[in-house]
Amino acid sequence: MAMDGYRGFLGLLVSALLVGFLSVIFTLIWVLHYREGLGWDGRAPEFNWHPVLAVTGFIFIQGIAIIVYRLPWTWKCSKLLMKSIHAGLHFVAAILAIISLVAVFDFHNTLKIPNMYSLHSWIGLTAVILFMSQLLLGFFIFLLPWAPLSLRAFLMPLHTYSGLVIFGTVIATALMGVTEKLIFALKTPGYDTFPPEGVFANTLGLLILVFGALVFWIVTRPQWKRPKEPASLRLQPNGGTPEGVEGSMAINFGNTDKSDSELNNEAAARKRNVALDESGQKSTM
């Protein structure tokens, strides 16, 4: 099963992974070099876990979980396996997101700073709630073999759309959080004087934005979508692959192998040529 634009997909995939990894590295450099490092004592180092875990789990790992179905070398794997990987990555992202929230709330409560007053906190908490709801819905409806196929088919477009909306909301929340932190933290020199930390954190924000754009582009290209499984596979409770079917779903990225239709056409042409030769010989005799 061929994939259109395989080289383009591979280039975008490598670019997305590289930019996402750089976002995590930049976040660590930001808190370790420009801020006060990492700790868990109710002070600033504990707060710094919030951006680190949010970018690592809620953005980078969630982005990988979204595009995992688009990896063509996994198309021959069973749907249940890919569902488990998809859900497992989202579960890891959820754990890191929860720890990041605990860190920021504990930091605020220790220093008597009000909670939930900024737009960043409102949208961020909304994104976490929606993400958890999406995770639970996906687990009980799509991963476990209880829900009927009609319900899965009805909810799948909503599940896909909601996942992208939540991912975009998380990226917007992260950009607001970076700006908010710089405005509060940079006093002398001020944020408006282009200090090194401000420029560095702004670059981090651009990396996060580019990563999100690449993920959105990869998952919205119809030619890179995982092929639909045959009816015999869709009737399986978890989309498992019966024996003898995986071989028919092997991926062919080149043009060296001919399709069945081409082989059938060639065979028919040979038969016609033989018939013509025989008729010609009979007319000559």
Automatic annotation (TrEMBL):
- What SMART domains does the record point to? B561
Q: What class of enzyme is it?
A: translocase
> What stretches pass through the bilayer?
12-32, 52-73, 85-105, 125-146, 158-179, 199-219
Gene Ontology terms, MF aspect: metal ion binding; transmembrane ascorbate ferrireductase activity
Major subcellular location class = membrane
- Superkingdom to which the source organism belongs: Eukaryota
The Cytochrome b561 domain extends over: 15-220
Q: Which reaction does it catalyse?
A: monodehydro-L-ascorbate radical(out) + L-ascorbate(in) = monodehydro-L-ascorbate radical(in) + L-ascorbate(out); Cu(2+)(out) + L-ascorbate(in) = Cu(+)(out) + monodehydro-L-ascorbate radical(in) + H(+); Fe(3+)(out) + L-ascorbate(in) = monodehydro-L-ascorbate radical(in) + Fe(2+)(out) + H(+)
Location comes to: Apical cell membrane
InterPro entries attached here? CYB561/CYBRD1-like (IPR043205), Cyt_b561/ferric_Rdtase_TM (IPR006593)
Q: What is this protein called?
A: Plasma membrane ascorbate-dependent reductase CYBRD1
Q: What is the native source organism of this protein?
A: Myotis myotis
